[in-house]
Amino acid sequence: MTAPRSRGRACARRSTAVAGASRPARRRLVFFFDLDDTLHDASHAIFRQIDTRMTDYVERHLEVDRGEANRLRTLYWHRYGATLLGLVRHHAVDATHFLRETHDFDVAALVRAERGLTRLFARLPGRKVLLTNAPMAYASEVLRALAVHRHFRSRYTIEKMRLHGTFRPKPSRMMLRAMLARERVPASQAVLVEDSAANLKAARAIGFRTVLMTGHGARMAGGCGCMQRRRVAGAGLVIRSLHQLPQGLARLRR
Ligand SMILES: [Mg+2]
Questions:
Q1: Nearest residue to 14 (alpha-carbon basis) of 127, 105, 123
Q2: Distance 220 CA to ligand 1 centre (A)
Q3: In what helix (H) or strand (E) does residue 130 lie, and over which residues does it extend?
Q4: What residues flank ion ligand 1 with Cβ within 5 A?
Q5: 6: helix, coil or strand?
Q6: What is the value of pTM for the model shown?
Q7: Per residue in 61-97, pLDDT tens?
Q8: pLDDT tens figures, 137-195
Q9: What Cα–Cα distance (Å) separates residue 245 from each residue in 46, 88, 193, 210, 213?
Q10: What is the CA(131)–ligand 1 centre distance, in A?
């Protein structure tokens, strides 16, 4: 876990407060944001690009037909939270090569998101940390396209989710605990904003406050619907738009 430390963090902690948060929540909150289908609508076009490239890659490197390549891609994604893990674990695929090849397209041209995110993040108090199973180059490109990159000095991407030499992406509780320790944030002050029920469930189990974002695609959790995801996640707050977050914090349950 080698995410960059934020300079001046202690100062920021003292100088900001969460507007509208209930009294127990008034202590400094730190927001951990997922990327795909949370900060932007990856289901609109980007997932299709990545899925196609991943299937191509599996077909080529494992020398299997298209159907089998698709089956393995989705199997590993459901089982491990990232197709990469299954390919590394079972087929000794080179992680860096795989990530580069499968995210090699004009990302910025396909980014679709809500309007006004730059203003929203400027007025949302508290530190923001990116927490995504996507690779760093891709994540940075999306953040830049969204014009919110300045707000995310700490970025945890798949490359940084190795513990003792093994990939531990979301929903690994071990990784989440290690990341909190690294960021020096008690779980009670951590808020995870996510579209994935499985990831929220894991975070909630170790004490995070949780926000389920339902406004984008329903690919997560096996493509199940919004109501099902909400029930599975048991989220403290459910939002359809990131713009509902500042007001919703007052109702954020543990
Ligand atoms: Mg997501």
A1: 127
A2: 7
A3: strand 127-131
A4: 34, 36-37, 195
A5: coil
A6: 0.84
A7: 999 999 999 999 999 998 988 899 999 999 999 999 9
A8: 999 999 999 999 999 999 999 999 999 999 999 999 999 999 999 999 999 999 999 99
A9: 25, 37, 9, 11, 10
A10: 9
Written as one letter, the residue type at 124 is L
| Dist CA 65 CA 250 (whole Å) | 52
Structure tokens at 24: 């127990």
**pLDDT top residue among 35 and 254:** 35
- The residue written with tokens 């960021």 in the block is 183
Give the DSSP H or E segment for 56.
helix 46-62
Instruction: Tell me the CA–centroid distance for residue 203 and ligand 1, in Å.
Output: 14
Domains and CATH numbers, the chain: 9-43+112-251 (3.40.50.1000), 46-108 (1.10.150.450)
Using CA atoms, how far residue 87 sits from 55, 70, 95, 166, 196, in Å, is: 12, 13, 8, 13, 22
Q: CB 55: neighbour CB atoms within 10 A?
A: 21
